[in-house]
Amino acid sequence: MRRKTRAVKVKNVQIGGGAPIAVQSMTKTDTVDVDATVRQIEEMVRAGCEIVRVAVPDKEAALALKEIRRRVPDVPLVADIHFHYKLALMALEAGVDKLRLNPGNIGSVERVREVVRAAQAQGVPIRIGVNGGSLEKDLLAKYGAATPEAMVESAMRHIRILEDLGFHDIVVSLKASDVRRTVAAYRLLAEKVDYPLHLGVTEAGTPFAGTIKSAIGLGILLHEGIGDTIRVSLAAEPQEEVRVAWEILRALELRQRGVTVVACPTCGRIDVDNFVGIVTEIERRLQHIDEPLHLSIMGCAVNGPGEAHESDLGVTFGRGVGMIFKDGDPLRKVSSEEIIEAFVREVEQMVAERRAKNDAGPEEKVSLPTKI
Questions:
Q1: What is the pLDDT of residues 326-347, one digit of tens each?
Q2: What is the pLDDT of residues 152-197, one digit of tens each?
Q3: What catalytic activity does the UniProt entry give for this protein (predicted)?
Q4: Binding-site annotation: residue ranges for [4Fe-4S] cluster
Q5: Residues 294, 327 within the same domain
Q6: Range of 98's domain?
Q7: What is the pTM of this model?
Q8: What are the φ and ψ backbone dihedral angles of 203, each rounded to 5 degrees?
């Protein structure tokens, strides 16, 4: 059961209120470089990013937002603001769809009120982002460290500032760089408020280690029904963050997008050379497919036919050949040297057939999973 929360709209994407869990990421370009930033945003969206955050560290970055907004008019944009309330006002004037700021860090109550009034006038929500690495000094002194309790107290401070000003269009995140503290903090806050929660293990690390930490931390919380939007924070391109986020959601059967590849781990029974290379290349070649498809690629005939029966398309290898299955039934044999090209073509043809049927008249239209 999903935790019940308020609904918050970020342009055309709803967060919370029972909406599908949204996938977010953040640009890693200099925001002032509009061309590079727009290119990266477009790449992120193609990978499945639904909400894009950009850093706004100074006036030049805030000024660049207007042109970025003009060039990606349909993408929900979040301005990441720290300390300077005027940057938040400039971001709102540029047309961003959400602010990420902590109201206790941008100055006096009057300054916060000015930002809140502008956000309310434009229907722009605010995400309070608590980070275990940058807690208030008094809370560190009180708790002795950036504990989950200290993180939650920090979040509640910022929440109350906005609530006292009559602002409730709020999303909250509580990120730490370790899994246990992150999970504990979100569990505590989930019992105190009904605002939607943005999940993430911050500064998770390299693609290998960071993916594992993020999958465990986000997976635990999502499995418990906690979380309304996610970001995977990796020392990698944002498109990689997006792909990992979608893989987490697909593994938990919370959302579906693109191909899911079931592949055997290989053993002494394998009947094809370079099996890992074949699987990796097929998966790479199918990154442009956003329709949900279940594929199986198996190295021998022991489990291959069974997995193929559960797949939209599958291939099972024998000595020097691969048998392609479609909807569980044998389709044709292909030599192992030709299997990548043949299998990719079959997938693309299946997608084209499904799209054609879905575009047909009401009598012929088939039911397909919702395209993201």
A1: 888 888 888 888 888 988 998 8
A2: 999 999 999 999 999 999 999 999 889 999 999 999 999 999 999 9
A3: (2E)-4-hydroxy-3-methylbut-2-enyl diphosphate + oxidized [flavodoxin] + H2O + 2 H(+) = 2-C-methyl-D-erythritol 2,4-cyclic diphosphate + reduced [flavodoxin]
A4: 264, 267, 300, 307
A5: yes
A6: 7-251
A7: 0.86
A8: 45, 50
